[in-house]
Design brief:
Layout lengths: L2 E5 L2 E4 L4 E8 L7 E7 L5 E8 L5 E3 L7 E6 L4 E6 L8 E8 L2 H5 L5 E2 L3 E6 L1
Parallel strand pairs: 2-11
Antiparallel strand pairs: 1-3, 3-8, 4-5, 4-9, 5-6, 7-8, 9-10, 9-11
């Protein structure tokens, strides 16, 4: 059974930091791209960052470049999203997702999604 379990969300003041974790199981981690998506209140779910485990290619949304860093611990089948200099507009539910195609994943049509972790940034 495929599972993507997110953790690390919470409430933080603007300018603060959080690190999200996505623990993956049930598929061959090295063959997949793992991404983070964000759904703000009343808005659609958008891509934040993506790491293709197979070749190390990384994507970032323009809104988070220079502030967020995606990384992985392949031995633990875990992908992290380090979020620094957080802004109120970063508030939302953050979902981890996986697909063997990073292009398909970035289009938000990946094969697997987690349940999400909530991030709230207060001003």
């Amino acid at each position: 059974e495929v599972q993507l379990v997110e953790s690390g969300g919470g409430l933080v003041q603007a300018g603060g930091s959080l690190r999200l974790s996505c623990q993956a199981s049930g598929f061959t981690f090295d063959d997949y791209a793992i991404g983070w998506f964000r759904q703000a209140p009343g808005k659609e779910r958008d891509g934040v960052s993506l790491l293709d485990i197979s070749d190390g290619v990384i994507y970032y949304a323009d809104s988070v470049k220079g502030r967020f860093t995606i990384s992985s611990d392949n031995a633990k089948n875990t992908v992290y999203l380090q979020m620094n200099s957080l802004k109120p507009e970063d508030t939302g539910i953050y979902y981890c997702a996986a697909d063997q195609s990073r292009d398909r994943l970035w289009l938000n049509v990946g094969d697997y999604y987690g349940q999400g972790t909530r991030v709230t940034v207060s001003s």
